[in-house]
Design brief:
- It is a single chain.
- It is built from 46 helices and 26 strands.
- By secondary structure, it is an alpha/beta fold.
Amino acid sequence: MRENTRLFNRLKAAVSGEVMADPASCGRYATDASIYQMMPEAVVVPRSVQDVEAAMSVAREEGCPILPRGGGTSQCGQTVNRAVVLDNARHLNRILEIDAEGLTARVEPGLVLDELNRALKPHGLWFPVDPSTASRCTLGGMAANNSSGGKSLRYGIMRDNVRAISAILPDGSKARFDGADPGPGAYADLVADMRALGRREAEEIAARFPKVLRRVGGYNIDALTGEDANMAHLLVGSEGTLAYFTELELSLAHLPGEKVTGVCHFPNFYAAMEAAQHLVTLNPQAVELVDDTMIALGRDIPLFRKTIDAFVRGEPAALLLVEFAEGSAGANAAKLSDLSQMIGDLGFAFDGAGDRWGGVVPVTDNALQGAIAEYRKAGLNIMMSMKEAGKPISFVEDCAVALPDLAEYTQGLTDIFAGHGTKGTWYAHASVGCLHVRPVLNMRQDKDVRTMRAIAEEAFDLVRRYKGSHSGEHGDGIVRSEFHEKMFGPRIVRSFEEVKARFDKKGLMNPGKIVHAPAMDDRRLFRYGPDYTVPDFETALDWSAWPGAGGGFQGAVEMCNNNGACRKLKGGVMCPSFRAMRNERDVTRGRANTLRLAISGQIPGGLTSDAMAETMKHCVSCKACRRECPTGVDMARMKIEVLAARRRDTGLTFADKLIGYLPRYAPTAAKVPWLMNLRNRVGPARKLTEGVTGISHRRDLPQWSAKPFRDDEAQDSDPQVLLFADVFNRYFEPDNLRAAIRVLRAAGLRVGVAGDGTGRALDCGRTLLAVGCVDEARIEARRVIEATKGAVAKGVRVVGLEPSSILTFRDEFLALCPGPEAEALSKAALTFEEFLAPLPDLPLKPVSRPIHVHGHCHQKAHDAVTPMLDLLRRIPGAEVTLIDSGCCGMAGAFGYAPDTIDVSLKMANLDLFPALEAAPDQAIIVADGTSCRHQIAEGTARRAIHVARLLDELIG
């Protein structure tokens, strides 16, 4: 085992941060967003620069390579290696200084870009390099990659915005790399040698380096040719091969202010590419491409469907999103007018036909512009959402050519793809001639790997013909480094090797990148290597929408492309446990990688292993990834498979039975509520029962009601709506159900309660799924489907109060009992607010108190929060505020367990609890989720109520 190696033991002794060497932990750091996988020797999560120094010292003495890593979003294999991986993002993420007057900031390397911009916004500033991965990429990684973004036309790339870098060199010495003349010493000698190299090679650099706005290939030795060379610019783009960055000094810019976007529609792709050179003469701050493939795929993703419908007219072959920020509404309007005039002058109009069809859709609404920007930023992940075995593969993705050559170049590349029997998907930065294109290939097949190689050779020949750059944005890594000699010539490559040798004599800093690279098509380095297989296995749920073993489970797991959208720290809900813990294990990507390793035999014990159970431990099944992961990785559903497999292996604990079989013993327990509630009042009992029940002594349990809800409380003849009475509201908060019935009747509706006539309440199976009892849950699902199918066939809606229960009908039931009857129920099932929102207004009294709403995670995942807000805003005088919060953290039994209660409270304290503390004292707090209401009651002085209770109180 890796844990027993000398390296591991020495690292454990040397650093205060976490050190990992087991297959699961190392496997989570073995990949990035590229096609490659290389298992680390160990992973260190340093808590301080001193930890970094100690880890580098041990690795150096052991002759082991070192790999600094940020968000792990690299697309070319920069952040994978057989090395000691240093994870900067978890702890080394502080803002050290903001100088608003001097327009500079000093930061640690693990700081995420969006976190910096949130801190800068109150100063009216931002860091203007804006890659699509801003929600999770780190500033250290951006500098190492020489990243750029959609607005580089105006603001430049990382090299243009990094003033200085403080670094630890491979020999353990430290230096500040900047434009100042160094004092005497080893650093001064290094600077002198590098500047001498720059002067010596100036003529060759001028002849060989592409004259385009986007060129990040190789080392930036062109920065060494001037007398005032800034040594930091040599480190920028060095991909962790020269030094470890401890601190970066960045240039800031004033926020651009009000923006507008003109969405230019084109009838064919070539026309859009031909137009780009003209559009940039209007001095926009960005011109971004979206092709018809991205439009079609985006429409299939719930998160983006409404946005696309709002700004796309007809069926364009390509869009160019032209963004202006001129400082005033009038100036922006003038630019949009100029844009429309130019598109017209180019011969396009919406009333035109064939190749003359097209035009501009102006977008001035800030919210829609933001949604469009998020959609465009998700371009990579949208392209990767294809469910088939072949995926768009990154290897010629970000070549850059001059704008006058763009149309001919893209046509040439399209012809190369067609010649090899594939096609490309296009998006991104038309303003700088750097279009992201990925041919669709299957990296598990040798023939497609050979095709990749052939396309790369031909594509780079094409780029060279147009005097462009083969590496325009995403760096070199493994995929492009071997082509430097073809693109730059041998003399420049020897200069790159000289730089590497001068900094890193032993070649220990991220070897194999930029210089001395392996072949890009060496399958031994692939995520899906020559020996990669997934034996077939039995699954509990239906995964037939995807390819591969386990009835498609393999394909569903492999949808994760490692781009790391799940690592975002604000906005949406995904991924709550990562936001609380900042641990790669606890993010959707980390879990998906572990699952892939488990089913392919790379983790001993597979799905039933302790490593797999530990990986899934903090997944709260919030379903945020179901909606927010652009490639549709549904970790909540995958967790059910893991739990089912482990249950078959180990059986259920008593604590599992308490959770899973709650609906079965609840009728009996409800007859003695005084006894069931005794535990909360007797302190010693809480401690004594903790180990057996799996309930932390620090938590009160929900109170059993003395008057649980009965189905016969609402059995109107010929009902117009069927109420599903879930176990939580039925036995613990039955007044919610009674209030809902009164509200529905006040709306003039006849109400029935869903039942099967057996006298046993229907159950959604949610608690059974939570402990892996899938077969038992399937039985319950069939009971519900059978009991409601007659009413559903008549068009009657099935309505529920608890989101986690009623939305199971729209989700898990389809995987438990696939077929037309389950599909019919899924379409008929609605939350209480979804059902009421389109109906005529209720006779409600006005309310003078503000209403603050916390949405349940499953409501957010199913886009069911908006109807809730719409309904509440129809209350006379209502001021409704949606609390900007992620998961409450209770998540059923998760928040009650002794070993997860602290993580539960961490989740709540990220956003929800602070928002509740900041709300006015008189505010009404509304939360539909049972778990949410209990978390709020346990952790704050507030009490939340269900929407049904509030509406019932206000009915006149």
